[in-house]
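Private note to self, pasted from the team thread so I don't lose it. Backbone tokens:
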């Protein structure tokens, strides 16, 4: 299957000498949700802006739907919807007018039924006649998404789409993103909410200092890099780990009442059964046992620290 977006050896160097993007290579699949994660200043917005033709790459090539974004700009840009971080709206226009106008900018014929459907999907229908200046920050964010969807793009970029949005609305937006993906739209989002990527992304990319340090399927990433912990609640406090169990790299926590064993889920032998035998031989009794899996946030923090 041909990638909907192909990025090949893309660099962006500003006149000051600052290298914002460093040899980026990435292929985005049709109808996938790709989450781009990275610390502030990592290059997330620069990469999105370059793909959308807002910023020119210094070198390299980007194609959208097999077309070069420079030589076929009109075609490729027409396939893209963009929700930027900044809330740039005409304060005194109504919701209906501003979304309809955005559709016209892409040469699309008026389609009131589609605009109505879009506004309803974003819980904006009852605000359609309100001026944007009258809306909350969360409502304005939804208007930006409606504008980006107004010309029915096949690719949607969401740059921090739920910043300043309450938890309930954020989950509504997650559902909308999933529905768009199911309808064949490719979604590329940046987010500071790691749980957002963990919840809805199909693949994860991590960018730092302008370099893509990892691109992986979300489930595979969590299986490969996510550590699992066995947590034992002890009946009696433990002051030190017996020498016979030194090789297990155990941790004592909660004033000696918890014993933590970290293990790799990809290994055929986790060592749990052997550990339990050692505990029994050492007369260390426990009253409860549970497991805990590393979250995507744990993995992300670990990756960024390792490459510092």
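Design output:
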């Amino acid at each position: 299957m041909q990638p909907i977006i192909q990025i090949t050896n893309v660099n962006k160097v500003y006149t000051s000498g600052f290298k914002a993007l460093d040899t980026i290579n990435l292929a985005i699949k049709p109808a996938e949700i790709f989450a781009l994660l990275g610390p502030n200043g990592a290059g997330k917005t620069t990469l999105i802006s370059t793909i959308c033709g807002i910023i020119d790459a210094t070198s390299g090539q980007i194609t959208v739907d097999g077309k070069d974004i420079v030589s076929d700009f009109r075609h490729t840009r027409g396939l893209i919807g963009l929700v930027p971080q900044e809330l740039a709206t005409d304060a005194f226009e109504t919701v209906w007018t501003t979304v309809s106008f955005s559709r016209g900018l892409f040469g699309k014929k008026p389609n009131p039924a589609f605009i109505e459907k879009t506004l309803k999907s974003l819980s904006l229908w009852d605000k359609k006649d309100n001026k944007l200046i009258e809306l909350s920050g969360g409502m304005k964010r939804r208007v930006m998404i409606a504008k980006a969807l107004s010309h029915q793009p096949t690719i949607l970029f969401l740059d921090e789409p739920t910043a300043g949005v309450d938890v309930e609305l954020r989950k509504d937006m997650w559902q909308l993103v999933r529905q768009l993906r199911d309808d064949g739209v490719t979604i590329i989002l940046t987010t500071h909410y790691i749980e957002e990527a963990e919840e809805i992304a199909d693949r994860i990319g991590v960018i730092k200092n302008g370099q893509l340090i990892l691109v992986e399927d979300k489930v595979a990433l969590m299986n490969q890099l996510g550590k699992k912990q066995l947590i034992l609640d002890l009946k009696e406090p433990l002051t030190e780990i017996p020498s016979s169990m030194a090789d297990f790299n155990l941790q004592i926590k909660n004033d000696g009442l918890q014993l933590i064993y970290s293990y790799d889920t990809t290994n055929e032998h986790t060592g749990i059964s052997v550990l339990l035998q050692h505990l029994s031989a050492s007369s260390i009794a426990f009253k409860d046992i549970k497991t805990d899996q590393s979250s995507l946030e744990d993995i992300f923090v670990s990756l960024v620290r390792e490459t510092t």
